[in-house]
Amino acid sequence: MSSEARGAGHVSGVPLPALPPTLADVAERAGVSRQTVSNALNNPDLLRADTLARVRQAIAEMGYSPNRAARNLRTRTSSLIGLRFGPAQEGTANATMDRFVHSLVEASELAGYHVLLFPGDDDDEAVTGYDNLLRSTAVDAFVITDTYLGNPQAAWLTRQRAPFVAFGRPWHDHTARHPWVDVDGAAGTRLATEHLLAQGHTRIAWIGWRKDNPIGEDRRSGWFNAMHDQGLSTTGLASRVEDTINSGAEAAAVLLDESEPTAFVCASDTLAMGVLHTLWIRQLAPGTDIAVVGFDDSQVAQVFPVGLTSVRQPLEDVAVEIVRVLGSLLNHQPVQERGVLLTPTLVVRESSGVADPAERTAT
Amino acid sequence: MSSEARGAGHVSGVPLPALPPTLADVAERAGVSRQTVSNALNNPDLLRADTLARVRQAIAEMGYSPNRAARNLRTRTSSLIGLRFGPAQEGTANATMDRFVHSLVEASELAGYHVLLFPGDDDDEAVTGYDNLLRSTAVDAFVITDTYLGNPQAAWLTRQRAPFVAFGRPWHDHTARHPWVDVDGAAGTRLATEHLLAQGHTRIAWIGWRKDNPIGEDRRSGWFNAMHDQGLSTTGLASRVEDTINSGAEAAAVLLDESEPTAFVCASDTLAMGVLHTLWIRQLAPGTDIAVVGFDDSQVAQVFPVGLTSVRQPLEDVAVEIVRVLGSLLNHQPVQERGVLLTPTLVVRESSGVADPAERTAT
DNA sequence: GGCGACACTTGGAACGATCAACAGGGGGGT
DNA sequence: ACCCCCCTGTTGATCGTTCCAAGTGTCGCC
Hints:
The structure is a homodimer of 363-residue chains.
Chain A: H1 23-30, H2 34-42, H3 49-62, H4 68-75, E1 80-84, H5 96-110, E2 114-118, H6 123-135, E3 141-144, H7 152-159, E4 164-167, E5 180-183, H8 185-197, E6 204-208, H9 214-229, E7 238-240, H10 245-259, E8 263-266, H11 269-281, E9 291-295, H12 299-303, E10 309-312, H13 315-330, E11 339-342, E12 345-348, E13 360-362
Parallel strand pairs in A: 1-2, 1-3, 3-4, 4-5, 5-11, 6-7, 6-8, 8-9, 9-10
Antiparallel strand pairs in A: 10-12, 12-13
Helix pairs in contact in A: 1-2, 1-3, 5-13, 6-7, 8-9, 10-11
The structure holds a DNA duplex (30 and 30 nucleotides).
């Protein structure tokens, strides 16, 4: 084992002693005072180069790492970001949350934060969770993920002056003043539609969610505007249904019978799976006879034998943005933008009719 | 708003003051000393009933909650359980991890713990993560989830005397002495096989993973033994492939051609999806012509038009067991069992040939 | 009435870090 | 030669809780 000084990522080969070393221990070994060691960690610029090196060596030799609790107590921070991890959404093909959490964990780590999960099946439980964590100063900030109509969580957190960033726009609440990060769904469906237009399709159908869902209407507008920009009619080419495979399959059947579209853009991969199902039943080849594009790039889309072309949300970027805004918030720096809107990409696979797309990505 | 005293779940309607109340504030209001308030929280038995009530009322009125950092510092605990949240496994139909994390979060909450996520793409990064969290006393214990052959994480944690519980048996390391909780995969596939046998199938094929995967071999043994218990031959009925849809589809095609099975038991839903694909191509109706059973009860299984019968791991129970063992470990109580093995259930859907199963569950 | 046992309560110290304020040394300007 | 200030590093106090050992009151018993 080398004895050279290493940085924060140091991993000692020896077992942890019963009581880990403290700042004072390191100070004594390095022949300096506690505060100097503290400065070596938090304000290295204040130290002379040789002193800094000496302290760092002592830190490395002893395998010292600052006690979290003590630091938290003194600085009134925790370096923890709270995230409600509600009940698993079984029964849908959507694993967006999973991917997002991964991205958030990584982005947080880079910014020196960790992610703390807490349960909460409904709004009341969620608020109780927020309240407990806030009162006990267990977390520095929150990330909230569902910003559906009238969600009381954002309003409650705002009232408590708790720092938080939302993944998702405050669709119905124009008075909301909290920072948010979201993905431009309309841009995604426009991308999908233009991808199909570029291949000569003119009768491109839409299968989306019910009208009261603002996210669904947003995605729909991308298809709608892309069509009309080309002077193409959308009459009879749109359907609004529940987000289930069966609904998607039925809607596709009806549209095929009544309007003879050559391509489908869907508000979700779940609906797109329904379309694929109908195509199979009718012996129509996805990609060759009829093109299909989904939304979310779910596991099903990736894994299916006929790869499903799908709009992919840049969740990694979303997480990075959220952490960035959170950082500004916590350092009392002004947050320039109220909201950040990111553009998704299109993952092209066989179902949209491009021969051997080899997982191409269009932007 | 009522002014009656409420318990720990109290949610105040008023915004949080700039500085939350402390133990001393509550003590002053209740006309007692700090220690008495502390006892009211941690050792209520020590207080006279009327004093306890008075203190509790003050706590409720002020919306007091003990400062986490101070408590952690003093007691050298954090009430946090560390869980590595590695890279998302895209490209498989498996969302087991997601469901497990949810269960763990809920079970932890009930036991007074929270779950802390940290990244780590490979073993080295994971160990670095463990090391940092341990040295800074940021977590009380760990839960580790992948116990594949030669995983150095368990050995490292053992060497550091860090409390941890593994989800998964230490398959290859018989010297391992750490506690673990796992699901009996063989029992699951036996359940699946016997379910098919009960419906008159005798030529039941197996599609599993490569031989070097002990989990796959375990699951295979359940099918194998169930068949032989009935005096049925398994010759030519087994296939070992990669865990992809395409591999499953190819294996199914070969088996159908060469051995004419009437049912398939698969080591994963991913492979089962492949089987379904081959059936579609060959115009064979799943459930009616050929029965199929998967493993993991993934979203795909639940969501597919032809519901996929699948073995479901009792992840909720796994989480509860893990937290229980963790609790014993942290309270220095002896842990009776080295390992806990839980039995999965079978979720019956259309693909196994039962008419209108209506999501029945067999145990 | 006094004494001891018991039950409950109290003030002081400690956990380990950071904040605030200050001490000594050296260099530059007047 | 003097003053001042910057640079570097030190000391005492503090965050809010729990542990420790001693204090106070009440009660029963002789």
